[in-house]
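Appendix B. One record, verbatim.
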Amino acid sequence: MARTIPIIITNQNILVKMKDSDEFSTFEMPGIDSIVNIPFYHQFASKIAECQHHFKNFICELYGKRFNKNILAIVVPDDTSELEKIFIREFFVNSGACKAVAEITMGQALSKNHSRYISISKSSRDVCLQYINNNEIRSRKFYDVDDYSPKAVYEDAKRLHIDIEYAGVPVFINNFNMNMDDFFDFGEVVTPKDFLDKIAVIDVEKI
C-alpha cells in the first residue's frame, strides 16, 4: 500500500514529514543562494539532475529502500503560479523519489473543520487572499508584499466572492512564516505548530 508523505515548500526550504513521527525534516540543496522575490527552487532548474539526486537520497534516508512507491502530498505557497506548480510536480515525479505527486496550496490546508473560509497569507513576493470552498480555490487576489494595506486586504476579503459577501465565513491568518503580525486582529491565527499538525495527517483524496 502506498504511503502518503506530506511535504511543505516554504520561503526558504523544503520540509518533509519524518517516517515514524509527526516531526518534519528540512531538505536544503547545497549551493543554492537566495535571490530577493524569487522562490529558491527556481535555481533547481540550473542543476536539475543534481538536485533530484540529492532529494532522492534524502527521502531514501528517511523512508528506506521502498520510498519510490510513495505519494508525495506537496503543500506550496499560496502565490505559486501554474507554471511553477508544473515545475514542482515534474521535479518531484522525475526525481525517482515517489510514484506520484498530489499538490495543494497552504491556504487549502488551513482548516479541516470548515467547508468555506477565507485565507490570508504572505510569501516572499505577495500577500495572498483566497476564498476556499470544499477544498477548492474559488477566488483569489494578490498584493505586492512591499505595497499593501492590511485593512484594505481585510475589506477586500469581505467581498472576494459573491458567495461570501453577506455570509460571514471565517477568516484564517496563515502565520507559518511568522510574518503576519499586521493581520492578527482580522481572523483566527494559524501558528507554525498548528499548520504542521494539520499537514502531518493529510487526505490525498481531497487534493
